[in-house]
Amino acid sequence: MKPNILLLSVDQMRADCLSVLGHPLVETPNLDRLARGGTLFRNAYSAVPTCVAARTALMTGMSQRSHGRVGYRDSVPWSFEHTIAGELAVAGYHTQCVGKMHIYPARHLCGFHNVVLHDGYLHHNRGKHNNTADVHFDQVDDYLTWLRQTAGAHLDITDNGLDCNASTIARPWHLAEELHPTNWTVTQSIDFLRRRDPSKPFFLYTSFVRPHSPLDPPQAYLDMYDGLDFPDCPIGDWVDLDAAERQDHDPTTAFARIPKRRLNRAQAAYYALITHIDAQIGRLLNALQEYGVWDNTVVLFLSDHGEMLGDHHYFRKALPYEGSAKVPFMINDPGGRLGIREGSEAAEVIELRDVMPTILDIAGAPIPVTVDGRSMLPLCRGAKTDWRSYIHGEHSYGMLSHQFATDGVEKYIWFSQSGEEQLFDLTHDPEERTNLAHSPEWRDKLIAWRERVIAELTGREEGYVSEGSLVAGRQPKSLLTSGM
Predict the structure, then answer these.
(1) How does residue 137 score in pLDDT terms, banded at 50, 70 and 90?
(2) CB 401, CB 407: distance < 8 Å
(3) How many CA atoms lie within 13 A of 265 on its CB side?
């Protein structure tokens, strides 16, 4: 039989938050186990680092130029012909999603045979002024329905008072731990193992809403980190410190200098949510063994994007910096059928669009012509391959709208509204503290990276390129014509 496939996805987890990578505080023993038993990718990126665009690339294998999502926009109908789940269903797989999808309409199956949904708090779903039938949150969200049936009809996911984008405010989960969305996601995933069709291989997409805020870990996990000595966040020589100081202390702010005590509490809760997820992943991996499918299940782990977490006084995502755009990614094949090198690392720069062709390659299924990504299995096997030399990313984000390109060794950023350029030597400056764009020694590299971005943007509808040069001040778009 073809191998089963388990895709573990988390929301807003930084690439460096793995203890296997030497993080000074975070504990992730189960993810470390997966990494040491398979291939860990050191340069995995989300080209458009927010939820909707990232998940579009993940599910379709398309680049942002093809799928059209180049910023954050909700309520865009999902009309893609080819998806991971759809292609695997055609190939004979029993497909199931549990957790976050963040597509539109919310109950779109996206090729899955079944979806047990919890998207977290999405403003467009919660809008009580909106009379569209598919946005009645109480009706579309399976977790909230289960929570009310299990623990009380009055309960809501906002009862703890935390906003879904409050990346600087934390408090412990206020209900029993088994009622937390992270536990629920694994409980429902294990239940799928019980009721799946045993005559078919399965594709299970277990998609966690955390560590995306609200920062609400169970108390036991918060206790692991609360009060520890947290290293200072990196602050680049390019950061406008006066502007950061002037920002108010709105808990949903994306840029501000906040009090150290509050910052450390938020960091503690964020790390605690990751360790909580790790423990629940361990529970799911144990269930695979109990159901006798561990040795025939390929496990992949990733995040849709990262979280700035105070780096350079920024919070949340959408930015081109490592904290936001770089993601964890690993593949483990317990049965050893695929030739994946145990305990190996890959330095090639990969992107979320590469996940779909990799999974289809694992399943022995055809890869549609619409897919822009490439299978990563040759990289896992240590094979010589003509891999891409860099990836191009972007995000419409008001005055911080940007384009970037990186090979995991260097990174170029162009802010399309101001024309500001940044260049970082990621090998010697992984925290992006020093902007080399104005360094004479780096002028040739700056020009070379700029030319790559010009090539990527030539012909784009925004008009970012004219007569072979970048043009600042053009109106950014969150959705290209190709995505409409």
Answers:
(1) low
(2) no
(3) 15
Burial of 164 (0-12, 13-18, 19+ CB in 10 A): middle
Give the orientation angle of helix 260-290 with respect to helix 181-195, to 10 degrees: 10
Q: What whole-number distance in Å separates Cα of residue 297 and Cα of residue 310?
A: 37
Residue range 352-392, pLDDT digits in tens: 999 999 999 999 999 999 999 999 999 999 998 999 999 99
Cβ neighbours of 220 (radius 10 Å): 14
- Point out the least confidently predicted range of 189-193, 251-255, 336-340, 459-463: 251-255
Q: Mind telling me the catalytic residues?
A: 51, 102
| Geometric angle at alpha carbon 262, from 258 and 268, rounded to 5° | 125
Q: What digits encode the pLDDT tens for the residues 47-74?
A: 999 999 999 999 999 999 999 999 999 9
How far is residue 112's CA from residue 95's CA, in Å, rounded to a whole number? 5
Cβ–Cβ < 8 Å for 397, 71? yes
Closest CA to 394 of 42, 43, 57, 22: 57
Residue type for position 106: A
Domains of the chain (ranges plus CATH)? 4-382 (3.40.720.10), 392-483 (3.30.1120)
> Residue 335 and residue 327: Cα distance in Å, rounded?
26
What pLDDT score was predicted for residue 253?
A: 81
Distance CA 424, CA 436 (A): 6
101's CB contacts (< 8 A; 6+ apart) are: 55, 108, 110, 115, 117, 119, 207
- Predicted local confidence at residue 127, as pLDDT: 65
CA dihedral 104, 252, 479, 8 (to 10 degrees): -50
- pLDDT value of residue 131: 47
Alpha-carbon dihedral 94, 208, 232, 225, rounded to 10 degrees: -110
This prediction's pTM: 0.97
Q: Are residues 210 and 10 in contact, defined by beta-carbon separation less than 8 angstroms?
A: yes
Strands 94-99 and 4-11: unpaired
54, two tokens: 């990232």
Q: Is the pLDDT of residue 134 over 60?
A: no
Q: For the residues 244-257, what does the mean pLDDT come to?
A: 83
